[in-house]
Write a structure and sequence with these properties.
Blueprint (H helix, E strand, L loop, with lengths): L9 H14 L13 E5 L11 H19 L3 E5 L1 E2 L3 H14 L9 H15 L2 H9 L9 E2 L3 H16 L3 E11 L4 E3 L4 E17 L5 E6 L10 E4 L13 E3 L6 E6 L12 E3 L5 H9 L26 H14 L3 E14 L7 E10 L2 H12 L4 E3 L2 H11 L4 E2 L1 E2 L9 E4 L5 E3 L15 E3 L3 E2 L2 H4 L2 H4 L8 H6 L4 E5 L3 H16 L6 E5 L2 E3 L15 H8 L1 H11 L6 E3 L5 H20 L20 H22 L3 H28 L4 H22 L4 H10 L20 H6 L4 H23 L8 E7 L2 H9 L1 H8 L1 E6 L11 E4 L2 E6 L6 H26 L2 H6 L2 H29 L1
Parallel strand pairs: 1-2, 3-4, 9-11, 15-23, 22-23, 24-25, 26-27
Antiparallel strand pairs: 5-6, 5-14, 7-8, 7-10, 7-13, 9-12, 10-11, 14-16, 17-21, 18-19, 18-20, 26-29, 28-29
């Protein structure tokens, strides 16, 4: 046992232990037939990523689970890795080139990819090093990258299998297009944000020139690509117009009026412009009515030659100019404000443009059904359970997945074309010639695959599938995936589909969905709001352990996490409390031999009621912590440990022990020391998954590493059975007595506080027990009661009746009286209390006036009004108490 320094220095301790863990490969896991595997494959952060609070929360949860399972004796493996993040990484490198005065088009594809790989080598490990600072116990020798050779083989294998099954196809369909990134996006990558726009009512003339109809649209610039106007066949207002010809404003193109059930007669005017090249619903209408699409926009969001006089204008500039021209022609009936959901690129936030484009798709319905059944029959469970419904609704209405991207960084689509004979085929390796006609002049598709096409294979590709490796057969399926709700569809659902299709088995059995990290005002953290808290700054200021424990204390199952800088003081103060308790034990609870929990036997020892109480509370804490971890109730698990360590152990048992250590009974001091070390060592094990660094430091510092082992591999504590506690002499009646004794001590301490006694002022206490058996227990335990009260003396007297007014309070064990004779200046104390009373009276008057104000009551938020009413109630209670104290002193 080495002496602990007075102050805990977390930065030095955390750096020391993480380096040692890495050196000793403490996180390594290999197949072992004698042990049960327990695996997590990390949600791979983007290689461009920098640790933010969402990462900190997500990875702390995973690390808590892995460390807990490791201590339970499982062969726990946490596979780390990063995602190549196609669009995001290409954007980063393009910005780097722009600073050099270049664009990617100044380079060949191969030269650009060399630039990206070079950037990845220089900066791609940033997020990994930051995860290490957090304390993540990943098996770093297994680190994977979605573009590494093994994972790339898996991607090619999957593409070719699906292509050969005709589940991958190329189609000319409406997709989400980002003009900034110049690529297609899947439906899930287009984030819809409620936006205040406008609904433009534009007049279209009937060809006969006798009348006009009005069409409502939110995107007037696309009217230049109109090929029809549609009405509902049951809408009597327009039944005579069906089959008529209209003249498109500005361009003068003749377009028909068609009848289609899709049209909602209640929206706008009931007349809908049909633009098949720029709207997914219009595209379907166009197919039904054999209308030829007209694309009026280039990939960069500028209008093309089909837009007539607006060619070359940006789409939004075109909107402004077009509306002005329509106004001039008297063709704008009105413009209304209109809230609607507008798609934005999930990477650069540019407004997405629906665009007709030839792209590659995966036919998802055949893949979805087995994944639906896996959740329906309970093989995979969502926590919280409410996400099951969200998942099933999405899967049952799943749309085909657009998997092609018009960028260079990523897995290039392995489809090849022979222009000589027209053959198209998919191949895992680049072929030398056309397999049909033998021509060597073949070409590969230019597009790359969606980043998620590699990520959906993650749970088995990290084990080198399609090879049937020992790792794959042992560690797959994994156990738990921890993620946020926004990627249930991007990633979780697709992983389930991939696991069922290619492995014939579920990829994991539990999906834990944690909440979103928000600031204290409930706003999502973002750079634009300037409300982000940097976890690395919190680690530097408070420690990684403090960050982790504070986050877990705040993480209620599935609920959003509200944080502010000062909330991390909870974790820091808790760590300091534990450190100080350990130092106290080193100075007082000195043992002849180190504690070995497996060999601890208290049956030969006479345990005091306080000894029995702390052993019972330890057992409760073990049971509660494990039960809550089993149910993914991380905040309740953390709270169970916190409550036990802070209150039961430090506040009560350590304080109780001080009286013992000051005494002359050497055997009693040895016994209490033995109990303290046993309980403290078990508590450190409970705490380790949450607070790995401090617990490792104390495990060694307190001499608990008997075999030189790490706390990481120390056995997880078992809750002591009733039989075991009984064998050690723990009686439930004495445990209940100590609970009640603590209530008595609180009452006595409140009396001391009421009369402003300093810690050095020792008062005389008289306790009138409620029952004779209680009095017997108190008389046997009077020394500890006196120590905890800081009393000059404690008298237990069932017949006591004060001669006059005397400070007192009711406890569970009886009435507590405190003599203040010779301890206070009554006149001075009355003066002080009257001053407090005046302040309280003023406060009550102010709040009463506010609550009587109808203007305040009607306009203030309900929670503000409730807060004022609560405050008034508290002040009324305080006023009553002050009045009684003044009355007591005056008597």
């Amino acid at each position: 046992m080495s002496e602990l320094p007075k102050h805990y220095e977390p930065a030095d301790v955390e750096a020391k232990w993480y380096a040692k863990w890495l050196e000793e490969k403490a996180f390594s896991a290999k197949p072992d037939a004698e042990k049960e595997p327990w695996t997590i494959a990390i949600p791979p952060p983007n290689v461009t990523g920098i640790l933010h609070m969402g990462h900190a929360l997500n990875n702390t949860i995973q690390d808590v689970l892995i460390r807990w399972k490791r201590m339970q004796g499982k062969n726990a493996l946490w596979v780390p890795g990063t995602d190549h993040a196609g669009i995001a990484t290409q954007n980063v490198v393009e910005r780097k080139l722009a600073k050099e005065g270049k664009s990617r088009h100044d380079l060949s594809r191969e030269e650009f990819l060399k630039e990206v790989w070079a950037w990845k080598e220089d900066y791609g490990s940033t997020i990994v090093s930051q995860l290490k600072k957090l304390g993540s116990s990943c098996d770093w020798d297994r680190e994977r990258f979605t573009m590494d050779e093994g994972l790339s083989k898996a991607v090619l294998e999957v593409f070719c299998r699906l292509y050969d099954k005709k589940l991958i196809y190329r189609g000319n369909r409406i997709i989400n297009w980002c003009p900034r990134c110049a690529t297609a996006l899947s439906d899930e990558e287009s984030e819809h944000i409620e936006t205040e726009g406008a609904l433009y009512y534009i007049r279209y003339a009937v060809k006969d020139g006798k009348r006009k109809i009005t069409v409502a649209t939110t995107r007037p610039e696309t009217m230049l690509g109109d090929v029809a106007v549609a009405v509902n066949p049951r809408d009597k207002r327009y039944s005579d117009l069906i089959g008529e010809t209209l003249v498109l404003p500005i361009l003068g193109r003749e377009i028909p009026v068609v009848a289609d059930e899709f049209v909602d007669p209640s929206f706008g005017t009931g007349c809908v412009k049909v633009t098949p090249a720029h709207d997914p619903n219009d595209f379907e209408i166009g197919l039904r009515h054999k209308l030829e699409p007209i694309n009026v926009m280039d990939p960069d969001g500028t209008m093309n030659e089909q837009a007539g006089p607006y060619a070359g204008l940006d789409r939004f500039e075109c909107r402004k100019q077009l509306i002005e021209d329509l106004r001039q022609g008297g063709l704008v009936e009105k413009i209304e404000k209109h809230m609607h959901a507008v798609g934005h690129c999930y990477r650069c936030t540019t407004v997405v443009e629906p665009r007709l484009s030839p792209q590659w798709f995966v036919d998802m319905k055949p893949l979805a059904q087995p994944a639906i059944e896996a959740v329906r029959d309970g093989r995979i469970q969502f926590v919280p359970e409410r996400w099951t419904k969200v998942y099933l609704e999405w899967m049952e209405n799943i749309r085909d997945w657009c998997i092609s991207r018009q960028i260079w960084w990523g897995h290039r689509i392995p489809v090849f074309y022979c222009d000589a004979c027209g053959h198209e085929w998919a191949a895992k390796e680049i072929p030398g010639s056309c397999p049909v006609c033998g021509v060597k002049d073949i070409r590969q598709d230019e597009d790359v695959l969606d980043t998620w096409f590699s990520s959906w294979l993650w749970p088995f590709s990290v084990f080198d599938w399609p090879a049937q490796t020992e790792d794959l057969n042992y560690f797959y399926p994994t156990q738990t995936v921890v993620t946020a709700s926004e990627i249930i569809f991007f990633w979780v659902a697709r992983m389930i589909m991939a696991g069922m299709e290619f492995m014939g088995d579920i990829p994991f059995d539990t999906v834990y969905i944690h909440g979103t990290v928000r600031d204290s005002q409930g706003r999502k953290m973002s750079k634009s709001l300037g409300n982000s808290i940097d976890p690395l700054e919190i680690i530097e200021k408070y420690s990684a352990d403090a960050l982790r424990f504070s986050l877990m204390m705040l993480t209620a199952t599935g609920q959003d996490v509200y944080i502010s800088d000062e909330k991390f003081e909870v974790g820091r103060n808790f760590c300091t409390k534990i450190w100080n308790a350990a130092r106290f034990m080193q100075m007082n609870a000195v043992l002849d031999t180190p504690v070995d929990p497996a060999k601890t036997d208290f049956s030969r020892m006479t345990l005091s009621p306080d000894d029995q109480h702390i052993l019972s509370k330890l057992s409760e804490a073990v049971r509660s912590t494990e039960d809550n971890l089993d149910r993914y109730r991380f905040n309740d698990a953390a709270l169970a440990i916190y409550d036990f360590m802070w209150h039961h152990y430090c506040d009560w048992y350590v304080e109780y022990s001080k009286g013992v250590f000051r005494g002359d009974d050497l055997q009693r001091r040895q016994d209490v020391g033995q109990v303290m070390h046993y309980v403290f060592s078990r508590a450190l094990c409970l705490l380790h998954p949450f607070v790995p660094f401090l617990t490792e430091e104390l495990w060694h510092g307190m001499g608990y590493n008997i075999a030189g082992d790490s706390i990481q591999t120390a056995p997880w504590p078992n809750a002591l059975s009733y039989e075991q506690l009984s064998l050690w002499g723990v009686e439930s009646r004495l445990v209940e007595y100590v609970d009640a004794k603590h209530d008595l001590i609180r009452v006595g301490r409140t009396l001391r506080s009421d009369y402003n006694l300093t810690p050095k002022q020792q008062a005389k206490f008289i306790i009138r027990p409620a029952q004779e058996r209680t009095g017997k227990l108190l008389r046997e335990d009077v020394a500890s009661v006196s120590t905890l009260l800081g009393a000059e003396s404690v008298e237990i007297n069932r017949d006591f009746t004060p001669a006059g007014a005397m400070p007192s309070g009711i406890s569970q064990l009886g009435t507590v009286y405190m003599s203040i004779e010779g301890l206070i200046d009554a006149d001075a104390e009355i003066k002080r209390l009257k001053k407090q009373l005046g302040t309280v009276e003023n406060g009550i008057g102010g709040i009463t006036k506010k609550l009587s104000n109808e203007n305040f009551i009607s306009k203030a938020p309900a929670d503000v009004v409730a807060g004022e009413e609560k405050r008034k109630g508290e002040l009324l209670g305080k006023r009553e108490k002050l009045r009684k104290l003044i009355e007591m002193l005056s008597a």
